[in-house]
Design a protein that fits this description.
It is a single-pass type II membrane protein. The chain is mainly α. It has helices spanning about 5-20, 20-30, 35-65, 70-80, 85-100, 105-115, 120-135, 140-150, 155-170, 175-185, 190-205. Helix 5 runs antiparallel to helix 6 (about 105-115), helix 6 runs antiparallel to helix 7 and helix 8 packs antiparallel against helix 9 (about 155-170).
Length: about 210
């Protein structure tokens, strides 16, 4: 299954940010909290929890590169038990691995789990884009269309319309597929994406 480079770059950037900068940000968060003792304690607890998750995620992410079943099991356990950004990122990793193993249903499960705990809108957009692709591969076109409606940032427009066109084409609605591809060309997006859309339009039956 094709995953666009821009998506992978965003995921890598998010991972680097939380691994490299997370500790400093968390320390600053705790230091900057006001004098209310209860609030201080709560923030300190949250910061410590996130720092532990960051360390665990870094180890798990590295272990997943080995491709061992033990590493995969550890990642799945961590993803199920962690309800913060590191749980989201681990589920994204698990979805990617599942797709590579042609376990599309497993990828959908991981992405749906990630969406339940993701709090950043940009990350939710990326998750919904990937989820729509997975649902299309699972022959769930209606669910895939619903996932696309959850993508808010206009920067995704060309990619969203590309996937929407593929979904509508699979449903046999050639006219609507053509309209979606055309809308994607007219929206802001990478030139390469627009070239792909033009090729798809030219490949449609009259």
């Amino acid at each position: 299954m094709e995953v666009y480079t821009t998506e992978n770059e965003q995921i890598d950037a998010i991972k680097r940010f939380f691994v490299n900068k997370g500790k400093a940000l968390l320390i600053g968060l705790v230091i900057g909290v006001g004098a209310i003792i209860g609030w201080n304690y709560w923030q300190s607890h949250q910061a410590n929890s996130l720092q532990e998750s960051a360390q665990s995620f870094e180890q798990i992410s590295s272990q997943l590169q080995t491709g061992s079943n033990q590493a995969l099991a550890a990642a799945e356990q961590f993803a199920n038990e962690t309800n913060n950004i590191y749980g989201v990122l681990t589920n994204i990793e698990l979805a990617k691995i599942a797709v590579e193993k042609n376990d599309i249903a497993g990828a959908e499960k991981a992405l749906l789990k990630a969406l339940t705990i993701a709090k950043v809108d940009d990350l939710k957009d990326l998750l919904n884009v990937r989820l729509a692709r997975v649902q299309l591969a699972l022959n769930k076109p209606d669910q895939a269309l619903i996932s696309l409606t959850q993508v808010q940032d206009k920067g995704w427009s060309s990619i969203v319309e590309d996937i929407r066109g593929d979904i509508l084409l699979k449903k046999g609605d050639i006219a609507s597929a053509r309209a979606a591809y055309s809308k994607g060309i007219e929206s802001s997006g990478a030139d390469m994406m627009k070239t792909i859309l033009k090729i798809k339009i030219n490949s449609l039956p009259n």
